[in-house]
Amino acid sequence: MAWTKTIAYMLATCSLWLPTNADNVWPNEATDELEKMLFEQQNPFESSLATFAVPCSASGLAIGRGFGAEWIRNAYHDMATADVQAGTGGIDASIVFEKDRPENPGAGFQETLDFFRPRYTTRSSLADLFAMGAVFGVGGCSNGNIILPYRAGRVDATGPGPSGVPEPQEDLATHTAKFVKQGFNTTEMIALVACGHTVGGVHGVDFPEIVPNPQPPPVTGPFGNDNTVFFDTTTSNFDNQVAREFVANISQNPLAFGHNETTRSDFRIFNADGGDMISRMAESLDFFSQTCATLLERMINTVPPSVKLTDVLQPLPVKPRKWSIDVNADKTLTVSLTLRIVDTLLGGGIQALVKPVSRTGAALPATSPVVIGNISTSTCDYPNCGPSFVYLDYSINIPAEQGISSFTIDITDGSGKTTTYNNGGTGFPLSDAVQPQMSLSTQTTKTVNGVTLQQLNVTAAVYNADQYTNISLIVPQPSNFSATISPWVAEVAPMKASGKIAGTNYTLYTGSWLASNESAPQHPFDVLATGPQGSASSTFNSWGDVPFVL
Ligand SMILES: *[C@@H]1O[C@H](CO)[C@@H](O)[C@H](O)[C@H]1NC(C)=O
Ligand SMILES: *[C@@H]1O[C@H](CO)[C@@H](O)[C@H](O)[C@H]1NC(C)=O
Ligand SMILES: *[C@@H]1O[C@H](CO)[C@@H](O)[C@H](O)[C@H]1NC(C)=O
Ligand SMILES: *[C@@H]1O[C@H](CO)[C@@H](O)[C@H](O)[C@H]1NC(C)=O
Ligand SMILES: *[C@@H]1O[C@H](CO)[C@@H](O)[C@H](O)[C@H]1NC(C)=O
Ligand SMILES: *[C@@H]1O[C@H](CO)[C@@H](O)[C@H](O)[C@H]1NC(C)=O
Ligand SMILES: *[C@@H]1O[C@H](CO)[C@@H](O)[C@H](O)[C@H]1NC(C)=O
Ligand SMILES: *[C@@H]1O[C@H](CO)[C@@H](O)[C@H](O)[C@H]1NC(C)=O
Ligand SMILES: *[C@@H]1O[C@H](CO)[C@@H](O)[C@H](O)[C@H]1NC(C)=O
């Protein structure tokens, strides 16, 4: 019956007109990378940092060190030089320039930097990564009991900030003043210290005056022994045990009951209000958790007023995860697309039709996913972090003359109901105007004056190239290779026409970028075409998709 079909169609497509959250659309340069790292913790494409912090009991790179505790400490020490009145400091990754200060002892800061730096890009500041490390540490160590809402947008410092991290031998007045400077009053100081000291401990190698540091016993692994004494008996659980044991006078915490009275800073801090706050935290795990969630969120969001953080990141229901558009000799385009879909939307099935839209806005035939072997999926490393995802691959063939500009997707759930996902109304943009042709591109190394440098040769297909006056390959690089981190600069290699693709309006352009330094990072690259009538680009392309040749 025709009318039934019409109604079904209207039901299926009515979400096109539902109001949607205008901000949570793809792409978003400010959040796409970070959203991926936050929510795709066990994905089939690349290793996730969250995995190192889970389980919380997993050792770091020495006996007595764990990544979760280390990353929470890293974020606090980075934040601790904030002056909220002056509007300076906060989470800005300045800790990377402050590692050799007496207030920052231990290998943990370098270790954290070494783990996070490979993820440091123009779309993921180190400060944002350090904040995310704290989210992973708290989420992993609380087994998902505390999920810190995560915002992006922190800006990296270009050098060290002032000193200001509290040290154990300082008196209560000094500590109170330092926390006030950071934006935390006495009650909040007590709570924040308890929250930070529910995992980890005091490392004898770094604080021999606080806990014994005998010669490390021989170990059979590659790593040493930090001679750590933990703050509480549940060092791998983000729980209120540290408060319970303090109130019960259990003497494990070296900063509360250690042999050295001078360094009993937790004892002084926990008693700063007569013991009221620490007792309340000891009495109720819920109160402890809620208090820690609030204060740690404030900690990671401590930034100068000039820095505007984004809204809390939410996982996109549908997100293009990988894509490429190849121009074929037979005058067609092959769009290879991997979509990440929240698995509950699919209801166990894989009915998800991609509906491409041509360059001029015409509907093109819908395409079902290609299924080869098992469907890949991603889950979080700890509960409550976010949804699980399914990755579906598509291979879409389109006449080059028609091209593609965007697509929508119709997903049928377990009950048979079909919903159109259209990225907030405009469809998911997927432009074929400028597309690197990975099979024609190469990466290699070249030795110049005895130094081995990376070389990236990119060939891109450019549609109606006549309209552009400048087509360039852009590889962001550190502005200062001597510095631990430095602002990114765009290194630009011009691209030259290397031939037309017969029977299409595509021209191939080729450019070659040679690294200026042997330690040049493989930062994702852009191809940018500009001209008087406008510009087109393909941004943040992964080196991983470019074949390596000797
Ligand atoms: C600290 O601030 C909190 C929240 O604003 C407030 O409830 C608490 O009473 C304050 N504590 C002190 C000692 O001022
Ligand atoms: C106690 O700690 C202080 C401050 O670090 C240090 O100067 C002192 O030597 C320590 N005392 C002992 C007995 O280790
Ligand atoms: C802990 O020690 C303090 C000081 O000696 C004492 O007042 C308190 O009652 C003790 N608490 C417990 C639970 O034993
Ligand atoms: C699919 O996954 C299952 C369970 O992980 C495994 O036993 C099976 O071999 C996989 N099949 C293919 C084709 O990869
Ligand atoms: C090339 O572009 C011109 C002008 O936009 C258009 O008329 C023509 O159909 C295009 N040809 C092909 C093969 O795409
Ligand atoms: C081409 O564009 C790049 C990137 O915007 C720019 O750096 C370069 O100077 C431009 N080249 C010319 C010749 O204008
Ligand atoms: C790479 O940078 C380092 C640190 O600035 C410098 O010592 C080295 O000479 C640079 N290499 C080249 C090839 O310029
Ligand atoms: C580069 O970084 C080094 C190390 O931090 C610093 O000494 C040097 O002044 C920096 N160079 C420039 C041009 O900023
Ligand atoms: C990359 O491009 C450069 C400059 O055109 C060329 O010398 C080199 O041979 C190319 N490398 C490869 C692997 O094609």
From TrEMBL:
It comes from the Eukaryota. The keyword Magnesium does not apply. The keyword Signal applies. Residues 125-299 form the Plant heme peroxidase family profile domain. Keywords: Heme, Iron, Metal-binding, Oxidoreductase, Peroxidase, Signal. InterPro entries: Ccp1-like, Haem_peroxidase, Haem_peroxidase_sf. PANTHER family: HEME PEROXIDASE, THYLAKOID LUMENAL 29 KDA PROTEIN, CHLOROPLASTIC-RELATED. This is Peroxidase. The lineage of its organism: Eukaryota, Fungi, Dikarya, Ascomycota, Pezizomycotina.
